[in-house]
Amino acid sequence: MAHDALAAHARDELGITSFQRARAVQAALASAAAFAFGALLPLFSAVLTPASLLAVAVPTTSLTALALLGRLAAWTGGASAAVGARQFVLWGAFAMVATYVAGRLVGTIL
After folding, report:
1. What pLDDT, in 10s, does the model give residues 81-100?
2. Which helix (H) or strand (E) segment is 108 a member of?
3. Is residue 110 part of a domain?
4. Closest C-alpha to 90, from 58, 63, 72, 57
């Protein structure tokens, strides 16, 4: 501890070692892959749904996918699956509404 108090604290109190350091490139690639994979279901929904139903089908498919991913993420982390699904759906719905409002402000029509 005399040489590096922070490293000693991280190792002894928090259990963080040099073998557990974050890998930025690995995290970025995993994030990009997860984003691309998560976008596939709504994209397929948009391609396969008749134009008259797009305004309902794509948000519904997106929120359903978010609920499933939220459950999976919570289960993986050892948390409540219901809480994980609720958080993903609420934040996803908020992002959809914010995007809709921004589009309306600049004159984009659905």
Report:
1. 999 999 999 999 999 999 98
2. none
3. no
4. 63
